């Protein structure tokens, strides 16, 4: 990929420190308070009762206790088994499940029972399906709106293997937020996302932004930090995302789910995330959420609350 010039950035931004993953405890800013209050158990039982999957559980999200305790969750449709083999992800991989045709309605019922005003829906990759699961996303969006008037819908979609008709099908349902994570810098794709293509992800976001001629969709992407990228590579990826008119950016620390997954190459400090947020806003992102425990859907309702609806 050709290297484009970065925008002029503030001279106060310092170089990142080199803090490698230690064999012992994580840095203090990554300590998580484990709680299991009544709301947490209520959400967990709701998910089980409706036979749903959440990325909170399947991907071992560090924020699950906070989010479930706040009676929110990110729903993962199209089953719990992914057809891809990303080196960072804890979601099960292998032969996928049969598509549950009742799942869209069940997701909508869960949104209603939780009283959500901003629903986030993602999925496993389903490269075995002709449309990659796009039609299932559409059904889920429609059911959520049918049962939850006024609820904003954010979808975090796969790349559909570059099937732009599948993307068009999702966009026909007019999600309020179209999220697709870049995840890492292009140099690391072969190791981190071997079944994905960096240029394909950028093209998807560019095409999604073009639908603003029809309605005010917000586009969004996320990057994991600490997988071995350099500062220059990270800033270039952020600049690439702005070049395709991406509105919202999330930046969080990669945490190794198990010893079978890619190791953490370094930990970013809270100050470094604050600096990255400042750079992102200077680049022109409308909102940047950056912090050690930030994930794509963490406090997602706040990412777009000040943007046009």
What would you note in describing this structure?
By secondary structure, this protein is of the alpha/beta class. The protein has a single domain (28-303), classed as Alpha-Beta Barrel (TIM Barrel). Helix content is 34%, strand content 14%. An eight-stranded mixed β-sheet has the order 1-2-5-6-7-8-9-10. It has a two-stranded parallel sheet with strand order 3-4. α4 (103-114) packs parallel to α5 (134-147), α5 (134-147) runs parallel beside α6 (164-172) and α9 runs parallel beside α10 (270-283). Mean pLDDT is 85; it is low at 1-19.
Order of helices and strands: HEHHEEEHEHEHEHHEHEHEH
Assigned CATH architecture:
Alpha-Beta Barrel
Let me know the average pLDDT.
85
Query: For the report, how would you describe the main beta sheet?
Result: 8 strands, mixed
Layout: helices, strands, pairs:
Blueprint: H1 38-49, E1 53-54, H2 55-58, H3 64-69, E2 74-77, E3 81-82, E4 92-93, H4 103-114, E5 118-123, H5 134-147, E6 152-156, H6 164-172, E7 177-179, H7 189-192, H8 198-210, E8 218-225, H9 231-243, E9 248-253, H10 270-283, E10 287-291, H11 300-303
Parallel strand pairs: 2-5, 3-4, 5-6, 6-7, 7-8, 8-9, 9-10
Antiparallel strand pairs: 1-2
Helix pairs in contact: 4-5, 5-6, 9-10
